[in-house]
Amino acid sequence: MEINLNEGERIDDLQRGxxxxxxxxxxxxxxxxxVLLADYCAGRTGRLSADxxxxxxxxxxxxxxxxxxxxxxxxxxxxxxxxxxGRSVRLNGLEDxxxxxxxxxxxxxxxxxxxxxxxxxxxxxxxxxxxxxTSPDKEIAMARGGxxxxxxxxxxxxxxxxxxxxxxLFLIYPAARLLSVTQAxxxxxxxxxxxxxxxxxxxxxxxLVMIEGIKGGRPGLHLLPVLFTHNEDGTYSExxxxxxxxxx
Length: 248
Description:
Oligomer: single chain
Shape: globular
Helix content: 25-40%
Largest sheet: 9 strands, mixed
């Protein structure tokens, strides 16, 4: 399918069976965290899933490609990013399984319904409102959680509002803010169940944490082995090579 590109855009190969994505040359582009989260929840999402804050749509694309029974309702505040994500969906012929909605996550329930989703995947903005460095690029600033960001308590509340009882939430967030995000989850009745930290090397402290929670679940936390992304010589670890499809 031929898709029009806007000025400053390019098509990148996701190296997943011909899967491709439209991205900005100089603006926001997806990072390793999205790839890690897609692998973390592979095979565990429900048939109907919400991608809250989809950005370029990479999470929906990667997970849908690996799980043919999963459909996504992808939510994105930025009209520019939502349009880009929608064109990437059409580029890959996934219109019947991924729908992109340009709406604030806090109003997502008005489009997706209340407690209708089997699962929610999300890579929330990672700066508290009014703190951290804000990019001069508006789309990058929104994705990274600059002054226009939705506080994590409101973000988790929005996720909980569309997630059915017993449904699963999957997210990735800075490890230093583990307490704040788990507290926000519990406020909307999503109990953290599986946690995996991500660190660069064995001697380094974790930078990221991936969490799976269950709405209405019983307390009880299972800590998974730390995921190390690099070897001592700076090359990707064996697990990262698997995640990126570089192993046999």
